Amino acid sequence: MRTVYCFPGQGVQRVGMCADLFDRFPEIAAVASEVLGYSIRTLCVQGPPEKLADTRFTQPAVYVANALAWRSRRRDRVPAGALGHSLGEYNALEAAGVFNFVTGLCLVRDRAAATATCTDGGMLAVVGPTTEQLQTLLQQASLNGVDIANLNSRRHQVLAGPEAELSAAARVLTAAGAKVVTRLAINGPFHSRYMRAAAQEFQDVLDGLTFAEPAFPVWSNCTARPHRAADTARLLVSHLTQAVRWQECVTAVLDEGAAEFVEVGESTVLTSMIRHIRADREEEKS
């Protein structure tokens, strides 16, 4: 069976993550600390939590943790592909050889700095309504300032927008019977129109960079199609303002045949999403 590896993004960070892997791969920790200008091992293993929760530090920490977890896995054959959720797409691209570890870390560091300037807002997870139902509820409540930022599964979405509109959306969706409506511990309205300034700044970082073709397919969050080297820079910029089309990415993999999805690292959040996507597909067939 084909094996497709999945890399999580922001939200999976915790103090103590990958403590054993820093001992196994000290050279990675040393290089990362030199690039970042601080001890990544200390941040990941000891915190403090409030610093690890700051997106300027969260993004590099998750990227390094994913990279360590990837290197700890024994792989007997070339993967059939890789997926990354939001920030995790950088790890998927690094795993496929599109860029090396240091280049990826520099990109993530600069992405984090750019997005840290767009902190007027946040993100809200919603479980229950379908995407169509969610859009209707937001339109009926005239909540035009809220974007759907993550399309995780048929009934699991994430909204992004200004604080006041997210609070209003939470009240509307709770009253409408949504099973889960909860704020995410992410300081910024990622994957929404509110990241346009960050995207413009990040464009300057990517100008002039060239990337290799992936050694195996990496499905883009923006298009739900495999990356091509010629398009990667453009897609990484668009990634900041466009929704994560996770359900479509997983569906695209499944449409090509049976696959085993393996989540890299300590998290199981993507595994749970994929389980729901598979169940929805089976329900639609029956």
Structure explained in plain terms:
With 286 residues, this protein is α/β, with parallel strands linked by helices. It has 2 domains: 2-117 and 192-285, 3-Layer(aba) Sandwich (Malonyl-Coenzyme A Acyl Carrier Protein, domain 2), CATH 3.40.366.10; 122-183, Alpha-Beta Plaits, CATH 3.30.70.250. It has 13 helices and 7 strands. A hairpin with a 2-residue loop joins strand 4 and strand 5 (156-161). The longest helix has 18 residues, at 55-72. 46% of the residues are buried.
Order of helices and strands: EHHHHHEHHEHEEHEHHHEH
* Tally of individual helices: 13
Give the neighbour order of strands across the main sheet.
Answer: 4-5-3-6
CATH third-tier fold name of the largest domain: Malonyl-Coenzyme A Acyl Carrier Protein, domain 2
Count of extended strands: 7
CATH H level of the largest domain: which superfamily?
Malonyl-Coenzyme A Acyl Carrier Protein, domain 2
Shape: globular
- N/C terminus separation: 24 Å
Radius of gyration, Cα only, in angstroms? 18 Å
What does the average pLDDT come to?
96
Structural class: alpha/beta
Percent in helix:
40-55%
Biggest pleated-sheet summary: 4 strands, antiparallel
* Percent range for β-strand residues: 5-15%
CATH architecture label name of the largest domain: 3-Layer(aba) Sandwich
- Any idea of the CATH class of the largest domain? Alpha Beta
Unreliable stretches (pLDDT < 50, length at least 5) are none
